[in-house]
């Protein structure tokens, strides 16, 4: 019984660690709004957060937001397996604590099949 349990546990670890090449990947957009003067700081936050997690970073864009004081919206697009959603949530949570961030949100953009 002990031998069977030990062997099955190891087999389970190998199966769970195996990459699934045809898994569905989800593209997420993570949006941060802050003061226009803080754009470089926000972009740096994205770069650091994406390298820390790590996620498949696809793009980073900025656009001005109307209002006073002048604000900027910075959008990072990442591609990831649904099982890695907690990484995105940790990244958003960490960035939301920055005093230069006035708003943060993320959403799934679409689903695509990974190339074999």
Task: Explain this structure.
With 116 residues, the protein is an alpha+beta fold. The protein has one domain (24-110): Alpha-Beta Plaits (2-Layer Sandwich). 36% of the residues lie in helices and 39% in strands. It has a four-stranded antiparallel β-sheet with strand order 2-3-1-4, covered by helices on one side. It starts with a helix and ends with a strand.
Describe the structure in brief.
36% of the residues lie in helices and 39% in strands. It is α+β, with helices and mostly antiparallel strands and 116 residues long. The chain has a single domain (24-110), classed as Alpha-Beta Plaits (2-Layer Sandwich).
Give the quaternary arrangement of the chains.
single chain
CATH architecture: 2-Layer Sandwich
Strand content: 35-45%
Query: Helicity, in percent?
Result: 25-40%
CATH fold node name: Alpha-Beta Plaits
Radius of gyration, rounded? Answer: 19 Å
* Count of distinct strands: 4
Look at the structure and give the CATH class: Alpha Beta
Using the alpha-carbon principal axes, give the shape: elongated
């Amino acid at each position: 019984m002990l031998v069977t349990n030990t062997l099955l546990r190891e087999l389970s670890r190998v199966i769970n660690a195996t990459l699934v090449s045809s898994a569905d990947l989800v593209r997420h957009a993570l949006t941060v709004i802050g003061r226009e003067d803080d754009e470089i700081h926000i972009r740096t936050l994205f770069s650091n957060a994406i390298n820390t997690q790590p996620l498949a970073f696809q793009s980073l864009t900025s656009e001005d937001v109307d209002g006073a004081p002048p604000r900027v919206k910075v959008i990072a697009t990442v591609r990831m397996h649904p099982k890695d959603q907690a990484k995105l949530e940790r990244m958003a949570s960490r960035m939301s604590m920055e005093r230069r961030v006035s708003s943060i949100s993320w959403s799934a953009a679409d689903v695509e099949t990974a190339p074999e």
